[in-house]
């Protein structure tokens, strides 16, 4: 079975537009078969964005951007330095469509986690690809320290039953974690680079 992060060029394309409002930010998302956000904004992404503190942060990396809601939220909140990566080319294309339609600009490129990322950021944000497996999730978490500026922060959302607790305990040697909130089983977690 194909996963939403596979590149399957044979899937029919059926692009749909969704209007989404998060806090006071309005955005349009473009989704398609074979991408994560097929039905619009994910609840986990919503609670992450509703709780994230982006004040005093200038540069951002959205890891596993999908059709772009995290990066779009940052840009529409007035941030200018936003990079967005995914391994799914269809997701990258949808993100590029969304950027144009929302009249915003970001640097979007294909990268297996950080493999093509060369910069450092004040904040790395992700709703991680759980189905890619624990090793990939931990690659995002542990690899963040090489791509965060001093005092940089990794923010992520993960469900309790998808290993939120062990993610914190297994990686607390590299990041100081804080649980920002727990909403309907979704944990919003901040990790500050040690
Ligand atoms: C849970 S979805 C989140 C999508 C979007 N950020 C959102 O919040 O709606 C995870 C995303 O990670 C992408 N992904 C999976 N494996 C990846 C990898 N190795 N490197 C980068 N992105 C990956 C998937 O294609 C998918 O778009």
Describe this structure as you would to a colleague.
The chain is of the alpha/beta class and 194 residues long. It has a single domain, classed as Rossmann fold (3-Layer(aba) Sandwich), CATH 3.40.50. Helix content is 25%, strand content 33%. It has 5 helices and 9 strands, in the order ββαβαβαββαβαββ. The chain has helices spanning 43-51, 69-76, 89-101, 134-143, 164-171; strands spanning 16-22, 25-31, 59-63, 81-86, 107-110, 121-126, 148-159, 175-183, 186-193. The strands form 2 sheets. It has a 7-stranded mixed beta sheet, with helices on both faces. A two-stranded antiparallel ribbon has the order 1-2. The longest helix is centred in the middle third of the chain and has 13 residues, at 89-101. It starts with 15 loop residues before the first strand and ends with a strand. 40% of the residues are buried. The mean pLDDT is 95. It binds S-adenosylmethionine. Residues 4-5, 36-37, 42, 45, 64-66, 69-70, 85-88, 91, 112-113, 127, 129, 132, 136 line the site of S-adenosylmethionine. Residues 4-5, 36-37, 42, 45, 64-66, 69-70, 85-88, 91, 112-113, 127, 129, 132, 136 line the site of S-adenosylmethionine (SAM).
């Amino acid at each position: 079975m194909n996963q939403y992060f596979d590149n399957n060029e044979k899937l029919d394309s059926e692009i749909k537009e969704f209007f989404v409002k998060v806090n006071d930010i309005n955005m349009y998302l473009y989704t398609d078969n074979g991408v994560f956000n097929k039905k619009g904004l994910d609840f986990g992404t919503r609670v992450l964005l509703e709780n994230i503190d982006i004040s005093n942060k200038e540069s951002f990396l959205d890891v596993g951007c999908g059709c772009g809601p995290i990066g779009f939220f940052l840009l529409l909140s007035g941030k200018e330095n936003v990079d967005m990566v995914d391994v799914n080319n269809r997701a990258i294309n949808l993100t590029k469509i969304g950027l144009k339609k929302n009249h915003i600009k970001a640097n979007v490129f294909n990268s297996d986690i950080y493999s093509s990322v060369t910069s450092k950021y004040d904040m790395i944000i992700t709703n991680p690809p759980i189905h890619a497996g624990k090793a990939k999730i931990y690659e995002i978490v542990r690899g963040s320290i090489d791509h965060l500026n001093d005092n940089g922060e990794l923010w992520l959302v993960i469900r309790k039953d998808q290993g939120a607790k062990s993610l914190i305990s297994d990686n607390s040697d590299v990041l100081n974690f804080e649980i920002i909130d727990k909403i309907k089983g979704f944990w919003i977690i901040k990790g500050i680079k040690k």
